[in-house]
Amino acid sequence: MSEGDGYPGLTDPATTVFSEAQLAEVRRLQSLYPDPRGALLPVLYMAQETFGWISLPLEEYVATLFGLSPAHVHEVVTFYTLYFREPPGRHVVSVCHNLSCHLAGAPGIIGHLRQRLGVDPGETTEDGRVTLLSVECLCACEAAPMMQVDDRYELNLTPTKVDRILEGLA
Amino acid sequence: MTGEMILTRNFARSDAHTLRAYLETGGYRAWAKAQAMEPTAILEEVKRSNLRGLGGAGFPTGTKWSFIPKSHAGPVYLVINADEGEPGTFKDRYLLERDPHALIEGMLIAARAIRSATAFVYVRGEYVEPWRRFSSAVQEAYAAQYLGHGFDIVVHRGAGAYICGEETGLISSLEGKKGWPKLKPPFPAIKGAFGAPTIVNNVETICHVPHIVNRGAAWFAALGTKTQGGTRMYSVSGRVARPGVYEAPVSITLRQLIYERAGGVTGNGRLKAVVPGGSSAAILTADEIDVTMDVDGLKNAGTMAGSAGVIVMDETVSIPEALMVVARFYAHESCGQCTPCRESTGWIYKITHRIVEGRGRKEDLDTILDVAKRGAGTTICAFYDGAVGPYISYIEKFRGEFEAMVLK
After folding, report:
1. What is the per-residue pLDDT across A125-159, written as a single tens digit (0 to 9) for each?
2. Predicted TM-score (pTM) of this structure
3. Distance from CA of B222 to the nearest CA of A (A)
4. What is the number of domains present in chain B?
5. How far is CA B284 from CA B280, B289, B312, B325, B375, in A?
6. Do B75 and A32 touch (CB under 8 A)?
7. How much is the ipTM here?
8. What is the CATH number of domain A91-167?
9. What's the CATH number for A1-86?
């Protein structure tokens, strides 16, 4: 990925890209912590929700809101799995592949999704509809195999249920 | 053995997460009582209850609280570890979604005991619905004036990293950094979040506190064993007929939990092995399940109670394949700070992978054991020791099955 691509309107990282209301929210979040830096993770979530993913220029922009170096923000963004460093699909499907789900047939569910979507875990369908991920324990082992679709947990999966869920994704 | 439901008593109510339902079932009465108690009296009560940390380490909660320096004049923070992530564990998700006010009430009492005015609740990033439920409950508690009068709660979302469940990794993350654990000492109670004395407690641990205040330390202690009071919520999954959360006194045996609560092995199959306390706990064979599920009972059995995530395996399960899945997890989640952990978890996953693919070598098993044993105890946090538990126990207890794969 090259710098500057990904979201519209931002050419200079110093340009304000959050709205005034969002900047007020940044200040409110920062005020909740003894050190404003505590709000870095929540503000990165805001940035991702606003722009879809976190590019290098966006990291630089967020750094300016905290008086941090872009390197620090990059270090944080790359440490966690829930920040996207390239544009994800409109929906993110994360299948748990840890032990309890594995015992309940997660490999078959992942195989089924690969076949239905035509992508491997870590990839996005060509139409930009779905990013498929294979992830560690989501802590819903009582309903294995399971996956997360955007914000929702989808439990007790079967290939038929997976098909029905996929049909519901625009 | 069924016993009284304490933490899970309201789970059947569809509105259990609301303030109205919580108040109807006796909620916030313990807080009223605690407000008339001296902080040290609360602390002593919790000490006498033998409540132990239910997130993984099993440390006595009252003792942990007592480590806050008495002479400290500045802020003290209470941090709730809701970064549930230990494979096989899902109890805190139930508490956040179905009884969030129990956590808030427990926090009010704990904060009084340690003289804290601000708490942070660190919820794992993937737990969107539990985070919403808990945040709504916090708003209700503010509106009802339980919060905002000398005690505030900040709800903080993690962003996907198992290591942030380790208390000092959690603190780093809360401070806006990558979640690297910190060298101890200083312990968080002396120098924790934002440099201030901090107590990090698990969700379930704190949910017990209102009941201890309401019904007394002696009652709570009598529910358990000599060294651990109370009940706890066992997450049971894998090859059992009825996977789910089961609350039981900590003196329940693993056999009772599997056969009397979770309905036994799926399809009446034969039990092969059980992980008793989340994936970091050493595995037990089918003839090692007559053990009590308290912290010391499992420790004496050479494993650990950990987060009480029980993963059951029947005879259809390949132990080498299970170890590969577990090893992949530790390789992915190692934070990379300490060399023994970063390197060993990656290489051991590669070795288990080739064993499962039929490309294993005769010396692979001893290589894993050697690497695991050398690295144990050499790292900043307990993550690597948690990986070593399965590496060694799976191979030592099921060596024949591994050998059949590497020698064929």
Report:
1. 999 999 999 999 999 999 999 999 999 999 999 99
2. 0.96
3. 30
4. 3
5. 12, 7, 10, 17, 22
6. no
7. 0.96
8. 3.40.30.10
9. 1.10.10.1590
